[in-house]
């Protein structure tokens, strides 16, 4: 049985930080769609050129492009014991596509951990990250757009998984290690 986790949360919730800790502990393959898009942009691939403006503006990349890219990443790792999906799915259509794709491989999502963070805290964190990240989409205008995309489109992914009985919320504010302990407890419960 594969251990396939979705780490869910708004921009700045700490998905990247907690993903890194999860990979180390569970030997999962980390798939961050944001990281993959940024690598394409840095390498000036065709895909990178198609998505760079959208990403810089804080808008979501169209589902068709994102889903195709994600499926390709999964297929690059046939030996994986499991995956941690970070920044994907961001729409219900993406969640459905992921279910169908994993199902076609005789697998599925094991569980979803949603990091709960207030909008106030998110704004503070991203302002700090901006100073070091060099990300065009971390400035305040673009951030507003990203948070808007989250509340318009991405939030609907939560009830999708809740209906499947796969959703667990974890408080994402506080000490990084303490948050990780809580996530670990949830993930150990999946196995
Ligand atoms: P954040 O730090 O806001 O969670 P990410 O690094 O996950 O951001 O993603 C950065 C940007 O990449 C998003 O604002 C969006 O433009 C694009 N992106 C990443 N993942 C997806 C996805 N699953 N669907 C559509 N667009 C995506």
């Amino acid at each position: 049985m594969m251990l396939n986790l979705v780490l869910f949360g708004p921009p700045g919730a700490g998905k990247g930080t907690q993903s890194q800790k999860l990979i180390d502990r569970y030997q999962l393959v980390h798939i961050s769609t944001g990281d993959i898009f940024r690598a394409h942009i840095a390498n000036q691939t065709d895909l990178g050129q198609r998505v760079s403006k959208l990403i810089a503006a804080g808008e979501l990349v169209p589902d068709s492009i994102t889903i195709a890219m994600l499926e390709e990443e999964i297929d690059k790792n046939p030996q994986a014991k499991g995956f941690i999906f970070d920044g994907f799915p961001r729409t219900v259509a993406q969640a459905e596509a992921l279910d169908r794709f994993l199902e076609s491989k005789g697998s599925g999502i094991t569980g979803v951990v949603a990091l709960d963070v207030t909008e106030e805290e998110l704004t503070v964190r991203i302002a700090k990250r901006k100073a070091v990240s060099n990300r065009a989409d971390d400035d305040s205008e673009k951030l507003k757009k990203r948070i808007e995309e989250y509340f318009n489109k991405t939030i609907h992914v939560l009830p999708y998984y809740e209906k499947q009985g796969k959703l667990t919320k974890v408080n994402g504010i506080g000490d990084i290690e303490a948050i990780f302990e809580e996530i670990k407890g949830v993930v150990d419960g999946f196995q």
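The mean pLDDT is 94. Residues 119-133 form the longest helix (15 residues).
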